[in-house]
Amino acid sequence: MHMLSASLPVLAQAASAALPASEWWQDGWMSWLLTLGVIVVPTFVAWLLAKQLRVSDMWARIAAVLVATAAGAVIVALGWPPRLGIDLKGGLILVYEIDRSKQITGRVDECIARIQPLVSRREGGGVERTADGRIAVRLGSADPAARQALLDEVAAIDFGDMKLAPSAARGAGDAVLFDIGGQIDSIDMDKLVAAVSRRVNPGGQKEVTVRRFGLDQIEVIVPEVDPKEVELVKRIVSSAGVLEFRITANPLDPGHGRVIELSRTPGTTVLDGGKPRGRWIRLDTDKLEAEGLVTRPGPDGTTEVLVVIDPFNVNGGYLVRALSSLDQSLRPCVNFAFNTAGATLFNQLTGSNLPNPANGLESRLGIVLDDVLLSAPRIREAISSNGQITGDFSKSDIDFLVGVLNAGSLPAALQSEPISEQTISPQLGADTIRSGALAMIMATALVLAFMLAYYRFSGFVADIAVLLNILLVVAVMISIKAAFTLAGLAGLVLSVGMAVDANVLIYERMREEQQRGASLRTAIRNGFQRAFSTIVDSNLTTLITGVVLFSIGTDQLKGFAVTLILGLALNLFTAVFCARVMFDLAERCRWIKRLNMGRIFGETSFPFVAWMKPAIIGSTAFILLGLAAAWQRGQGLFDIDFTGGTSVQLAFKPGQELDVAAVRQAVSGLPDVAVSAVTTADAAPGSRYKVDTSLRRSGGDEGEVEKTLRDAFPGKLLTYSMQYGEIKTRSTDGEAATVLPTAVTLSFPERINRPTLEATIEQALTAVGSSGAAFRIDSPGGSGANRPAESWNLETSLDAETTRKALDTVASQLADTPVYLSANSIGGKVAGNAKVMAVYAMLASLLMIVLYVWLRFQNVAFGVAAVVALIHDVLVAIACLALSRFVSPFLGWALVDDFKISLDVVAALLTIVGFSINDTIVIFDRLRELRGKQPFVTAAMVDKAVNQTLSRTILTSGTVLLATLILYLFGGQGIHAFAFTMLVGIITGTYSTVYIASPIVLWLQERFAGAEKPAAMRSAARAT
Asked: Over pLDDT 90: what percentage of the chain?
């Protein structure tokens, strides 16, 4: 197996690379001066303004508004652009699990050594390690009694912390298999996270995130990684990075005779008197010939080589520096340096194995990385502090080694393949930003225009408050270095719609006060005071769902939760405090004398309670229909977030577009496949599709799903491409040996990263017979080591004609490489964790909201009614998702697709819960007012409460619905299912507030009130 042939230094940069220069305002004194200016200048302006307008008692409140506005504007101006999540800028998200089996493997040899005496007495007996990590004991006889005797003898052995148990699997012939178990050493996850961080971000310049994920998993988030680099990143992350220097066993060396003789026993460690004298490791046959080495076939078909255990134990822990360089033959090599202790030991190791002048016998220094022998140069002289690793290495091999060695070994081994993998190309990120920004701007503009047209001056104040809310949210996101994700943009749009809710509550209260004949000042005061408790209630319940989602959500969902939480929290400042300042200022300066507002409804008296039973019957029937559809779809209702599998977004070349039916037919061989069209403003219809399947990747440079897509659409998929300019040659006479004579500029329509380009060039050089030729690339714009660029300068040591052949090969290879805009692979364990997380999130949100409503209204009926309405809303939304597959062929014009339940949809369901409870609490608050001191709520009270708040319900739901509809139409594929679920939730949440929650309060009281109910009801009816 070729260990390094596909490995690149995708993130390995020199640790000493200079950090980017700080901005002028980040200097200590300037930062303090700027902060002081943001506070002092607006405060002084507020004092002057208050004095000029003769409202001196308001200057502190005006100053608070101006300081917040100035601070937000300065932070946004200086910190722009904000950080973007992987789904907006492209990149890679990997989830790795600790390989617990490797913790036990190192102690298996001790178990084998203890079993060996038991089988040595049996003719034909033997013991060995199997390829799957078990111990196989050959009995030499199929006698059941002999088998039982062996089991009894093994059970009597004390293996210490290790435990052996007969395996359920059958061994070959008369072999008995034992499973290995035992105490697992605890792992310091913080140290593991730090070690992986050093490896993927050695210079500290990149916005790489490495964090704990679950109990024994880590999540690695790497921005701006091209999809072609995925396998390269995975290799550098999962490599354990344990470097050792060992002398290889030599059959001609008399000093090695004993260890070679003992090595014929099974196991990987050669023991002599209980002490390790040698070890079998894997030989990288692509890098090193087996000639002159002691080898044996490995259990997995590889070749193993014997190395000698020495007392010096020189390893990578003594390294202080590793650098890529060129040897005397201009071939890539690694220069390394030890610290003082390491130099002493290395000098002793090499000095004690110098060539023997009597017989010319030479020793070979084995360079071992992760139990694989990469190189074994002959020792010519003693080496101390500095050395060089040479061999048949490509430049990418050397850079990989440098990156791993500089980062050091991991404190625990990770599994070679991630259990979850999500790749998003920068191109898709740019398209997503355009779609998301367009949707956000349109939604915000329409909501603001509606508020201005409907509420006039009050709408103008609301618009200022909403814009200030957006400014402060962005400023806080920049300040805390939080990344905007696609779901986060959706959360910001929704918070705009929900921010209007507070304004509507206040303005409708003001309208009621004016209708009662109150003065303008009184109407403003009472409007803010009486709406405040309801605003707090509604915002807190939505904040509950946001906090739950942030606590257990993925990186993208955390982005949604952060923007939603910040939007709602800051809304209390902008909609309540800042808006009140503007109203008071306008009233005190007599800029307004009366609040003129539009009106949808006058005084209504709809008999809502009378329609309670038909509404409940209709809801129940629809939910049952949806559940039947969900049962029919089975696992197909769930996205790969919950089932595991692979999702790929592909693009067709211009002129090769296909309709969705043709794409579905072409990929119908994939299990549980679902195809959905992706529409963007800059892509032709039928040119992009998202393909989901339960088939999971099994490793390799190209997954089985990608290979199936390549075969299903030959010559039609969008591919990478390259053009190159004039190839120039120059004389190198008198120049340094590292100056390369041939230069050319390469251009790429799709941006490409340095590691990807280097790998492709190396493969092309091998194809034209110039493997190992020196070359160098750099970006004219000074691009970083891994930042993609459209233009690269190439220098080679080859002549112009050979360089041309290599570049033609590069262009051909790129032309055969499809551009997958995203490729996600979710393992079964991650999918299972996602299911548990979704259930916990939903139950936790419902429980916390019910407890809050119960405590807030001091009546269990209100809490039960609220939770029934919320469950109703969630079930209706799930029913619509389940039915989408059956109605999508007829509602394609409405962008209805074959929607599935994903983590984004779970976020939408949680948001529905928060939104629906807002309406419910508003009506419950009005019911509490109407009930007064009466012990029970009557049907007349319910109808009156719903009618009095009907205008607010329609306005709030309408503004949020408008914002969500824009997201649904123009937000792009990434949030299409989210927006659909939200649309359904907004409609059903408004419906359930009126026809489910309020009537259920009445029904519960009638059911459980007791004998005192009739008299109390008659008294309450007379009172109303």
From this structure: 9
